[in-house]
């Protein structure tokens, strides 16, 4: 169909095309103008946005730095929190302990309060007891005053009696001195009588207050049985002792001379017993004791009161002579008679 158009038709289309193209160009120019304007405003906007973005990035960097600092502070705070948490736990434990102690203290206070109440109640009873004790004390003081008066009276009487006792003591001492003198005279007469009776016997002698008879005069070797000669000698001794006992009997009821006795002491020599003698006696002590007993028995049989005689054996403990010769040994074998006090 277009091929059939004529030139006249083509001429008619061109003005419209130009108008359309002009309109299009105008539109394009308007659009371009709008684009340029828009581009300008967009550039301005972008510039503002870049400035804002730069500012925001700077702000972000600043905030990042602040965040780092905050994180460090946060770490420190966490450490502090941990430390404070431990401290808090310790304080809580202390508080719990203090709470327990407070409870104990409250219990103690409660108990003390109860005790205080009990003490208050007790103090009332004690006050009553104190009043009673004061009354008793007053009574005791009164009794003490009475006793003091009685004591003073007794002391005065005691002084009087003391003077009497001193007087009696002086008189008694004088009496005792007289009796002792009498006893000394009796003992002297005893020794003089014994010397007279046995003056011709060389085996009998006086040593101090002792009358000594040789054992060889009275006994055979290793024997506690009196020989006939010994009996004869002891009969004379017994007669003198009987006389002595009568003299002492007159003094015996007086203080200071009561209980005087004749002590018969047996002594042996220092030699040990021989085999034959040990069959009869275990030691020199036993031999000396048996000899003293034999003398006491014989004197009692002759009439000397038994309550005036006592026997003692000393073995070889107290020799008169230290030698081992025959004379010294014979002198140590002896019977001693001594007037003494029981």
UniProtKB/TrEMBL annotation:
* Membrane keyword on record: yes
Question: In what residue span(s) does the OmpA-like domain sit?
Answer: 207-342
Q: Which residues form a coiled coil?
A: 46-171
Q: Which keywords annotate this record?
A: Coiled coil, Membrane, Transmembrane, Transmembrane helix
What SUPFAM superfamilies does the record point to?
Answer: Myosin rod fragments (SSF90257), OmpA-like (SSF103088)
A cellular component term from Gene Ontology for this protein is: membrane
Give the transmembrane region(s). Answer: 21-42
Under Pfam families, the record lists: OmpA
Gene3D superfamilies tied to this protein? 1.20.5.340, OmpA-like domain (3.30.1330.60)
InterPro entries from the xrefs? Bact_OuterMem_StrucFunc, OmpA-like, OmpA-like_sf
This chain's protein is named Peptidoglycan -binding protein
> Which species is this record about?
Parvularcula maris
